Amino acid sequence: LGRFSLGWFAHPIFRNGDYPDAMKWKVGNRSELQHLATSRLPSFTEQEKAYIRATADVFCLNTYSSRIVRHATPRLNPPSYEDDQELTEEEDPSWPSTAVNRAASWGMRRLLNWIKEEYGDIPIYITENGVGLTDPGVEDTDRIFYHKTYINEALKAYRLDGVDLRGYAAWSLMDNFEWLNGYTVKFGLYHVDFNNVNRPRTARASARYYTEVITNNGMPLPAEDEFLYGQFPEGFIWSAATATCGRKRRCLGGSLGSLLPVSLASPHPQIQVDQHRYKGCAEMGVSRPDGAGGARQKHLGKDVWI
User: Fold this and answer.
1) Which tens digit of pLDDT belongs to each residue from 15-26?
2) Distance of alpha carbon 76 from alpha carbon 30, whole angstroms
3) Phi, psi dihedral angles at 215 (to 5 degrees)
4) Given CB 3.0 to 4.6 Å as the disulfide criterion, which of 62, 134, 158, 195 pairs with 128?
5) Model's pTM, two decimal places?
């Protein structure tokens, strides 16, 4: 699909001045089966290839959704661009629905990587990406989710995959005339009241969200996910846990079932953990394994041997 749509125009400019080989082969093969003398796909002269090749400095991309494609063997006649591709397209009904298609944010990252692999490390600008809704009002949370997930996939392509992504333009700044859908589908970050002769604009929630993205130049970690440095309060108890022979003992918040190979220092002088005598270990309904005596007292709500 990529070679018949995006590649139809990008391959001559960013590769070799000619149509993709897969496109030339399929159209040529079907033209022959249709008893045509030549392929229905025009061919370039060497001079034309040299004239077309490498005539763009950046790759500008409009993208909104993705498709699941499967191979198909369509009819030969009448000839058509759609049938030449020899595939079927569909959207997964589980994908979030919009007024014109279904959202599939993961496709953004895959498409950006496909461009990189197909045409090299060319600078890429996403010149259109957005979602059409029929009646979003001003609290358009669905649009926020769309932009958040799509921009995040673009960020993954840049940060994790090394795609040379240079810019992103949300479609659209405000509600406008959307081709065959007219004014019934709203893409705008700003609501436009078309019933008012003055066409007043009102910022939607998505406009405020997109402003935050621009201000932060991306998606910083929320405060609750940031790594926090500092110390616990004085007297905070640390421990280590283990279990053996089906018995579990708890030592100052951890579990002990065998002798620890290291000495543990307790911040409480009255409870010294002894690796040989299990001092400081709470009894869990079984006798002390070393048979040693001692007094059992309460500490922090637990029975401990001291």
Assistant:
1) 999 999 999 999
2) 7
3) -60, -40
4) 62
5) 0.72
